[in-house]
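Researcher: Quick test of sequence recovery. Tokens follow.
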């Protein structure tokens, strides 16, 4: 079974949702017109990342304006989009760094970032739930940026049936070495595909690493962005997942399986 997937690497405009929607729309439409059925956008794509002074003002509920915006493309092109925003929980008024997947039918699945990096621990409340999402007959796992360095949650998602791991990200350039190694390691050790959509450009002292990538179950980078607003795409062979899991049977020979899986 083949599936065409895409990662959108963006330079965002700080605190300007309309401008970022316009950038995202162009990239999503480009990917959709080339056949993508799963598209991943970067971390906090609608606001930019370094907006800590105005997190609450820029936050929104899920569902809300951003999910509504993306739903229109999901319905028009019959595809799934994974993105990430500052979520405000209307029940407890807490803010979360939240990724979500929107389906063509309007179903929204969410993941609130568990492993918060640095000042994110002040900006956001940590998530507690980790669950692979249903994309038709395919299970998709989602984590966010810094999460990529934590192998345990990726393994839990894999044991829940994930065939693809996705990472909306705003990964810093000074830690590109970690990005390069961790994205390939998570794909290899779990025998699955990984789609990492990173930020490009600079915000305040943050210079983002770009190099968004699609990685195969052998840990090979099959597509990688350079620098700038860029859509990368690949048609992945989902049957190759089981072949690679037989080739190196990490999962079959796993002696301990967490009860969370």
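Model:
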């Amino acid at each position: 079974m083949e599936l065409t997937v895409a990662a959108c690497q963006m330079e965002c405009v700080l605190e300007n949702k309309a401008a970022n929607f316009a950038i995202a729309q162009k990239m999503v439409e480009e990917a959709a017109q080339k056949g993508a059925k799963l598209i991943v956008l970067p971390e906090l794509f609608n606001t930019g990342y370094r907006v800590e002074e105005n997190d609450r003002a820029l936050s929104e509920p899920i569902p809300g304006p951003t999910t509504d915006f993306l739903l229109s493309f999901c319905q028009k092109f019959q595809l799934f989009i994974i993105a990430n925003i500052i979520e405000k929980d209307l029940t407890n008024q807490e803010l979360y760094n939240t990724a979500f997947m929107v389906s063509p039918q309007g179903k929204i699945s969410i993941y609130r970032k568990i492993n918060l990096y640095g000042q994110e621990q002040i900006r956001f409340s940590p998530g507690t739930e980790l669950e692979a999402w249903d994309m038709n007959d395919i299970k998709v796992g989602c984590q966010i940026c810094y999460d990529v360095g934590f192998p345990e949650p990726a393994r839990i998602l894999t044991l829940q049936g994930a065939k693809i791991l996705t990472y909306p990200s705003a990964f810093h350039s000074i830690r590109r070495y970690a990005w390069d190694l961790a994205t390939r390691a998570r794909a290899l050790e779990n025998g699955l595909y990984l789609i990492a959509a990173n930020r490009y450009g600079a915000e305040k002292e943050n210079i983002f690493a770009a190099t968004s990538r699609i990685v195969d179950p052998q840990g090979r980078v099959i597509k990688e962005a350079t620098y700038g607003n860029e859509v990368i795409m690949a048609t992945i062979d989902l049957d190759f997942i089981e072949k690679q899991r037989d080739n190196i049977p990490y999962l079959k020979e796993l002696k301990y399986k967490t009860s969370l899986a």
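The two ends are 25 Å apart (CA to CA).
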